[in-house]
Write a structure and sequence with these properties.
Elements: E1 3-8, E2 14-19, E3 22-28, H1 29-34, H2 45-69, H3 75-84, H4 89-101, H5 107-118, H6 124-133, H7 138-148, H8 151-165, H9 173-185, H10 190-203
Antiparallel strand pairs: 1-2, 2-3
Helix pairs in contact: 2-3, 2-4, 3-4, 5-7, 6-7, 8-10, 9-10
Length: 204
C-alpha cells in the first residue's frame, strides 16, 4: 500500500489522506506529523488501521476540549457533540474518560454552576428538567440544589417576575390564577409562588 496524496483541507490543520488512490479519511496534522508521513510512502494495512484509531482518539479529545473551552458542558453534551462529528464510539469513550480524568468534565461542578446561574431566572423544577435533559444524574441535581441554591435568590427572582406580570393585571382571583400559572410555568413551587404573590399584594 502506498500513500498517493496528502491534501490540506481549508485553512485548518486537517488533511485528506489517499492510499492507493482511495480516500481513507480526514486526519489531524498532529497525527500525521507523529509518523512523519509523506506522499509515496509505503504502509501496510495494520499501520493504516492503527493510524485511524490514533487519529480518532486525538480528534475526539481535541474537539471535546475545544468545546469545553467555550464554557462548561455536561458529559452527555460533550458525547452528543462528538457523536455529531461522526467519531467512532470507542474513540469518544476514551476521549470522555480522559477529559473526566483531567477535570475538564465534571457533572457535579457543572450542575452546581448551572443552578447558581439559572436560579436567578427560573424555578427549581425548570432547572431540574433542563439538567436532566443535559444528562445530569438525579442525585447530582439534588446535591446541587442542596449545596448551591440560594432560596432567597429564588424568592427574589419569583417576586421580580411576578411584579412584571402584574403590571396590567388586577390581583383578583382570576388575576392571581394567571400569575400562579405563569410562575409555575417558570418552574417555581407553590409555596414560593404563594409567598411572592403575598409580597406583591402587600405592595399595592
Amino acid at each position: 500500500m502506498q500513500i498517493t496524496e496528502i491534501v490540506k483541507i481549508g485553512k485548518g490543520l486537517r488533511y485528506k489522506l489517499m492510499v492507493d488512490d482511495n480516500f481513507e479519511g480526514v486526519f489531524e496534522a498532529e497525527v500525521l506529523a507523529r509518523h512523519n508521513l509523506k506522499t509515496d510512502q509505503e504502509i501496510d494495512e495494520d499501520f493504516l488501521n492503527n493510524l485511524k484509531v490514533e487519529n480518532g482518539d486525538y480528534a475526539s479529545f481535541d474537539r471535546g476540549l475545544t468545546l469545553l473551552e467555550h464554557g462548561m458542558k455536561s458529559q452527555k453534551q460533550v458525547e452528543d457533540y462528538l457523536k455529531g462529528k461522526g467519531y467512532p464510539p470507542e474513540c469518544i469513550e476514551r476521549a470522555i474518560n480522559k477529559l473526566i480524568d483531567y477535570g475538564y468534565i465534571n457533572d457535579e461542578a457543572y450542575a452546581c454552576e448551572y443552578v447558581r446561574l439559572y436560579s436567578r431566572k427560573d424555578g427549581k423544577r425548570k432547572i431540574a428538567f433542563a439538567l436532566k435533559n443535559k444528562g445530569v444524574a438525579d442525585e447530582l441535581i439534588e446535591q446541587a440544589f442542596d449545596q448551591c441554591l440560594n432560596e432567597d435568590t429564588q424568592l427574589d427572582t419569583c417576586v421580580n417576575l411576578a411584579r412584571k406580570k402584574v403590571k396590567n393585571i388586577e390581583l383578583d382571583a382570576k388575576g392571581k390564577q394567571k400569575i400562579y400559572a405563569f410562575l409555575a410555568g417558570r418552574g417555581f413551587d407553590f409555596e414560593t409562588i404563594k409567598h411572592a404573590v403575598n409580597i406583591i399584594e402587600s405592595e399595592r
